[in-house]
Amino acid sequence: MKGCKELWRRQPPYRTSLEVPEINALLLVPKENSLILAGGDCQLHTMDLETGTFTQALRGHTDYIHCLALRERNPEVLSGGEDGAVRLWDLRMAKEVQTIEVYKHEECSRPHNGRWIGCLATDSDWMVCGGGPALTLWHLRSSTPTTIFPMWAPQKHVTFYQDLILSAGQGPCVNQWQLSGELKAQVPGSSPGLLSLSLNQQPAAPECKVLTAAGSSCRVDVFTNLGYRAFSLSF
Question: Where are the WD repeats (predicted)?
């Protein structure tokens, strides 16, 4: 990008140098001053941001990883991948502590879409995830699905917001869900499909919220009110 300058570059210690796997997900862990990378080599790599060194690799997935989410209190990280599993990792113990194979639950399974997990988010003891299986709200402590959201299209991004869940994927709309599974609203964007959502809030001024959505076009949609698209940025 014009005007930008690369400050540094780091690459995880992959097992082979013949082929460099893609990186599908990045996750900042502020309390640990670290960055977690995950992708095509089926591992989570932790990088110390002060030294730039990779401190650990977490192994357990049997296929490449699509998404990461942070449980800040613990600290723990959730990962979802092509193998259909959501895995919970204890960063300080550097080990896997819980596995949920979503596609094995009949109420979540959609074999025609596959078993892959393409998005997940967490809020305390709750997790929402989707992809091939249906978008589903889970209670983590009991590993129990509590709400199946009636959305036929695979979702690519999901996030908690107050008492709502926001999701996006195949199709141009940002979906607003009640925790009970009721679809509250669908807010159209400018792209035919959405791949990512980012919600920015100022803690001192909670009314100053901005949601951005990007997908299969050159535009980034900006929502200053979750009920409509305010404008779009083109690149």
Answer: 58-99
Residue for token digits 């009991």?
142
Tell me the C-alpha distance between 133 and 17, whole Å. 34
Q: For the chain, first and last CA: distance in Å?
A: 10
Mean pLDDT rounded to a whole number for the chain:
92
Q: Residue 99: is its pLDDT beyond 80?
A: yes
Residue 212's nearest CA partner among 202, 203, 200, 227 is: 200
- pTM here is 0.91
Amino acid in the structure at residue 40 = G
Q: In this structure, are residues 148 and 157 in contact, taking their beta carbons and an 8 Å threshold? A: no
* Whether 170 contacts 193, CB under 8 Å: yes
Q: What is the pLDDT of residues 178-208, one digit of tens each?
A: 999 999 999 999 999 999 999 886 666 666 6
Q: Domain 20-148: which CATH class? A: mainly beta
**What pLDDT sits at residue 128?**
98
Where in the chain are the domains? Answer: 20-148, 153-234
Residue with tokens 């959405």: 194
